[in-house]
Amino acid sequence: MDAITPKNDKSRGEPLVRPTVQEAEEAVRTLIAWAGDDPRREGLLDTPKRVVNAYKEWFSGYDEDPIKYLSRTFEDVQGYDDIVILRNIDVESHCEHHMAPFIGKAFVAYKPSDAVVGISKLARVVEIFAKRLQTQETMTAQICDAITESLAPMGTAVLIEAVHECMSTRGVHHKDVTTVTTQFTGVFKSDVDLRNRFLRSANQ
């Protein structure tokens, strides 16, 4: 069994032991039985395997390092000195409180200092952090921090807008509520016009 250290929780020093696939599948059977159905029923026989495979995909961000994707930069930008904005990056994550999905869009921008990074790498960073148990606030800060740490830009801006199924399909049952979170550093924090230009690009 693999030892794992939670990436979102710095309060724990001891690594956790990752359960086996068989143990994970047995946990799914337990939940099915707790919900009131029979995990031995024909339609549910392969459900534990499917759920574990789905979790492997949904939470693959724990096995990837976002900094690695931002390590290859390009300095030859032919004098370009304006901001770089990526709009409408898909966000598919799960809230750490109920393990329910929250789905939306991310908008990411930075103003390069010396170098730029491939735009697909920025989208990949969003995806890596999304594929972990998250709060939207934490994920917004993590994306911003990773870009700032790796690229040392003049400023970074991140906005995420998402619908949380933990409040749309349960609890208060408000289906049309979206949550918007933002994080700004450098020139995006000090220059109101630049920040507003970013927000307008995100239709805010």
What's the SSE blueprint?
Layout (H helix, E strand, L loop, with lengths): L2 E2 L11 E2 L3 H15 L11 H12 L7 H4 L3 E2 L9 E12 L5 E11 L4 E2 L1 H12 L2 E2 L1 H16 L3 E10 H4 L10 E8 H4 L1 H10 L3
Parallel strand pairs: 4-7
Antiparallel strand pairs: 1-2, 3-6, 4-5, 5-8, 8-9
Keywords for this entry:
five-stranded mixed β-sheet, single chain, alpha+beta, 204 residues, elongated, two-stranded antiparallel ribbon
Summarize the structure.
The protein is α+β, with helices and mostly antiparallel strands. Helices cover 38% and strands 25% of the residues.
Low-pLDDT parts are: none
Number of helices: 8
Element-by-element helix/strand order: EEHHHEEEEHEHEHEHH
Radius of gyration (CA) equals: 20 Å
Supply the helix-strand structural class: alpha+beta
Helix content: 25-40%
**What form results from the Cα inertia axes?**
elongated
Tally of strands? 9
Mean pLDDT score: 92
How can the largest sheet be summarized? 5 strands, mixed
- Strands of the widest sheet, in order across it, are 7-4-5-8-9
Task: State the end-to-end distance.
Answer: 46 Å
* Percent in strands: 25-35%
